[in-house]
Amino acid sequence: GQNIDQPTEMTATEGAIVQINCTYQTSGFNGLFWYQQHAGEAPTFLSYNVLDGLEEKGRFSSFLSRSKGYSYLLLKELQMKDSASYLCAVRDGDYKLSFGAGTTVTVRA
Amino acid sequence: IAGITQAPTSQILAAGRRMTLRCTQDMRHNAMYWYRQDLGLGLRLIHYSNTAGTTGKGEVPDGYSVSRANTDDFPLTLASAVPSQTSVYFCASSEEGGGTDTQYFGPGTRLTVL
Q1: Where does A26-66 show beta strands of DSSP type E?
Q2: Is the pLDDT of residue B73 over 80?
Q3: Contacts of B10 (CB under 8 A, 6+ apart)
Q4: Separation in Å, CA of B59 to nearest CA in chain A
Q5: To 10 degrees, the CA torsion angle through B46, B52, B53, B59?
Q6: Which of A43, A101, B16, B30 supports an S-S bond with A37, CB 3.0-4.6 Å?
Q7: Is A48 close to B97, i.e. CB distance below 8 A?
Q8: In this complex, is the C-beta atom of B41 within 8 Å of any C-beta atom belonging to chain A?
Q9: Cα–Cα–Cα angle for B58, B61, B65, nearest 5°?
Q10: Is the minimum CB–CB distance between B44 and chain A shorter than 8 Å?
């Protein structure tokens, strides 16, 4: 089966930076996704990495190292609305998505 | 444009009853998926369909069945519900099912089996 690990919870202050790490071991690799999920809502797409390196999209950036089986999501200039769960998902060799359990980020004033 | 809709929003069901969760998308996506989300376990794939007329099993298919008669609809049926099927169910769709495909999720159905 697939193994995707990410921290359960993180807390940070408004305006700060938080880095959410994700490590994975999967059968094949066809890309890594990050989703944001607010409580009681559907996951929404944030970013996609398939090559090594950093992808920047406004306040959010995502990094991938395929050789290390490692990714991180960087949230800058944190706002209260960023309080949510962040899901790391890996597309395996069969093009199926496997999800980590999610990291709940709490932003405090 | 609605995207993906799911019905019902929530449901309480007696064990042993049959239940169909509905999912409809208006994006003309070829691929559709059903996931369940349980606390501490993340999203797990139940069944998927890469195109109308075809379906496949995901990670946790037992106790569930699906059909894909057309592009837009992908219902999930619990033939005889059990309490372990209490969960939040999300339907998702994507253009093709591979490549750089991004999956887009519906609002979910919260199901409680007593």
Answers
A1: 32-37, 44-49, 53-57, 60-65
A2: yes
A3: B109, B110, B111, B112
A4: 9
A5: -10
A6: A43
A7: no
A8: yes
A9: 110
A10: yes
